[in-house]
User: What shape does this take?
Amino acid sequence: MGVDEMWLNSSKIKDILKNEVFYCNFDEEDSVTLRLRSEIVNWLGLKLTTKQELATIKLEIDNKLDKNLEAYQIKEQQIRGTSSKGVLYGFYAYLRRKLIKLPLEETSAPQQALRMINHWDQVDGTVERGYAGESIFFGRFGSNDNTDKGSFEVKDIGTDIFRNDFTRLEMYGRFLASIGINAISLNNVNVRGLGTSLIISPYIEKVSEIAKIFSSFGIKTFLAVNWSAPKIIGKLSSSDPLECEVRLWWSKVISHIYQVIPDFGGFVVKADSEGEPGPYQYGRNHAEGANMLAEAFQAYQGLVIWRTFVYNSQTDWRNRKNDRAKAAYENFMPLDGKFAENVILQIKFGPIDFGVREPLMPLFGALKKTNQLMEFQITAEYLGQQIDLNYSVPQWLSMIHFSNYGQAKDTVRDNSPLPSNSGFVAINNVGMDENWCGNKLAQANFYGFGRMCWDNNLNAEQILDEWLKLTFTEIDAITQKKIFTMLISSNRTYELYNAPLSVGSMMVPHYHYGPAVNGYEYDRWGAYHFADCNGVGVDRTVATGTGYTSLYEPSIAKKFESLEEIADEDLLFFHHVNYNYILHNGKTLIQTIYDQHFEGVSCVKNYIKVWQSVSGEVDEDTYNNVAERLNLQLCNAQNWCDQVNTYFYRMSGIDDNRGRQIYK
Ligand code: GCW
Assistant: This one.
């Protein structure tokens, strides 16, 4: 099997496109050239002139169409755009609509200005939290071990850290453009070893080759930086953002980057987080840190994307008043309005860390004077790592549509003072695996992320239906429905056996796959469940707990605070209750824990049966790939069920009222 091209892989499209490199030429301001062979144009049914083998098609750009410079209109077999990028998106929309047989008429503009992908790829070729093979950018090609991730010492071995597989990157760029992505950062936010030097020569010149490819698909390239770079690679004595020589060093580095990559996007910064250096080391706050970089970027319209994942990862578990969920809010809310216009805060959707159920991070809605990006994780670090089925779009959309401090139609965009500097960002799930994502069905998440950035009024069902029709063009409606049913329920299924009623954090430390009920309980990371013989859950109420509920708008705070009003599935994130506590579902807490875990296992058994019934209907590679992973998922679900149920039986001494197998 050759490299799969995600939704652009179906034989129908492939026959037409025959691996043709087709891209937009953005050189001319007011027109765009799509290089397409004549048979493609004929198949598309576009009214365009063609020339022998290769057709050069001039498409009209209409700036009056919409103020949004990425909008398109498909009408009377013409694609028009408010800019060349609009035409590019219009082209893919046309292709999509044609394949799923929708009317070839549409006017559309993206809802989110920034639609960004973060790679956590490292210069030694590994990918932090990557479950689909090695990095598509970097590899260990040098004769010596070119990085030492544990130390900040830089060993210079030249530029053979790059993979130079530009065919693959072209495919990737095409896929990204086809789902509307317009920004990408290439390297892990934990920037270590040689990775620190990507921003300077000779590495930045190689980055520019990659950036050129992405540029041709309308995508801006960003790099993650190490806050201490002035000390580490600049050999300065300090990285204090208020020191003149530090500011000068950064502005020189940034000005050089723009000489090499004129359309460079900017930096992504993880500072003062999980051991990474940051402005706190010098007694400066995050606004002082970010604004220092922003100033250097101003002349080039570059951006500083500053992450808010800042919490004390050295917590004393003995002190029940500590609450990691409050950390980002406490660090950043006092700085609202203090960030420069070209700074954007990148904020994880929930207050802990991409769990299968978390409430919305309370900074959303509360921040009104700071540009924002909502951060998602497509790579399923805590959600089954692309072994277990987990179509996460339903969960993401519920975060986007949760309204805190109401009114805003679009929480992120409408609360950002400069809406063009706001949007959604996600950690991607691709690597060198032939199907990019490890699990073929995990492509749905990547596709879905792009689509929800473009239009978050689409619902999870629509997006999934679209993806299935585009990806499995050959299968019949019944088979499609079967796969649909598996995927649409998969996030909930994972939740059933992973985290009882949103308690979270019962997974194997560091790896985050499989159960270890007390794995984090007596550790420094601030992720606890506080189970004892009387009950379980984290009391985050104002009345008796950490007071986290008060960070929300009063009507929401009241709902979370109150046992009568809180939804069952949110219960243990906010309250510590005893095992005989009766939930809204009419059952006790302990019985609900047992029932959910058994139900989770039985859902996975059912997925296996359904998948067996599609054998012969989907292609063999996909069939085997998913079948193998479903079997692993069943072991995982069973393991969770057995360990969690046994643990709570031993804690509570209460039997399952249906007498099912619980190991005692
Ligand atoms: O979820 C945690 C991950 C880390 C990651 C960190 C972050 C890149 O376990 O691997 O580091 O989040 O988001 O910075």
Summary: The pocket of 4-O-methyl-beta-D-glucopyranuronic acid is lined by residues 120, 128-129, 188-190, 270, 309, 353, 381 (CB under 6 Å).
